[in-house]
Amino acid sequence: MSNNSSRAILRLEAVSRHYGDAANKIEVLNGADLAVHSGEMVALVAPSGAGKSTLLHLAGLLERPSSGEVFIGEKSCGTMNDDERTKTIRVDIGFIYQFHHLLPEFTALENVTLPQMIAGLTKSEAAERAAQLLEYMHIAQRATHRPSELSGGEQQRVAIARAVANAPKLLLADEPTGNLDPETASYVFEALTRLVRSSGLAALIATHNHQLAAKMDRIVTIKEGKIVPFEG
Ligand code: ADP
Fold first, then answer.
1. Domain spanning 8-229: CATH superfamily
2. Separation of alpha carbons 17 and 66, rounded Å
3. Nearest to 176 by CA among 162, 159, 195
4. What is the pLDDT of residue 23?
């Protein structure tokens, strides 16, 4: 193992993912390799149906590869039992989706507080960190509002704060700005970038927005089941 790969937060080694039976086999990934390091933002740009969601699900341990290995830090996910996998997902990985999926009956602050209480923090510890994160995302002034009282960009900034509430190592995002107008998308993306840079997260972000993709450290795509650099 090289020094470089040993520092990877997320590593896929020769990962394949097939759907269907032998007669109707769909090979979405076929020997795919990828490493994402601490503090690095990698954009995933590929046409619909190319396998972006599949790749994010594999990286987030929500699906298992047909063959190959997924590592989170030094942990090989193939050898984990269900409890270890659930714990790794909860502790090490944060998810952001195109739609915020905030809990509608709770305030912004509570939405960021709850995951930390589930992880074992006291209510006051969790609320203090939640307030700091909302401040960091420039949304503190809306802390006591429920999701329905927030704009799309505000909801998404709360969702980002929630995704990192338990200080994960890896952030996985599926079209995090896909539902926003261009100006709001830029603002939300800037907030996300600030967070990744300051926290040393590794981030893999699927997006159709080429302008935002170009601001990340590198862009990859999926071609013939492999993960390759995106060219133009
Ligand atoms: P993207 O996110 O890039 O649009 P997906 O990862 O959702 O692509 O899908 C990649 C391919 O795998 C598509 O052809 C899709 O139909 C197929 N696929 C995804 N999930 C399943 C499944 N559970 N069963 C069968 N085929 C699937």
1. P-loop containing nucleotide triphosphate hydrolases (3.40.50.300)
2. 5
3. 159
4. 86
Average pLDDT over residues 45-71: 95
Is the CB of 9 within 6 Å of ligand 1? no
* pTM strictly above 0.85: yes
The answer to whether the CB of 26 is under 6 A from ligand 1 is yes
Task: Give the pLDDT score at 1.
Answer: 44
Q: Please, where are the H alpha helices in the chain?
A: 3-6, 52-59, 82-92, 108-118, 123-136, 152-163, 182-199, 210-213
Residue with CA closest to ligand 1 atom 13: 49
The predicted model gives 156-182 an average pLDDT of: 93
* Residue whose CA is at the smallest distance from ligand 1 atom 16: 49
pLDDT at position 179, please? 86
45 lines ligand 1 (CB under 6 A): no
By the 10 Å C-beta count (0-12 exposed, 13-18 middle, 19+ buried), 48 is classed as exposed
Average pLDDT of the residues in 83-100: 92
User: For residue 141, what is the DSSP state?
Assistant: G
Q: Quick check: CB of 182 below 6 Å from ligand 1?
A: no
Backbone angles phi, psi at 226, to 5 degrees: -110, 155
Average pLDDT of every residue of the chain = 93
Instruction: Check residue 232 and give its pLDDT.
Output: 73
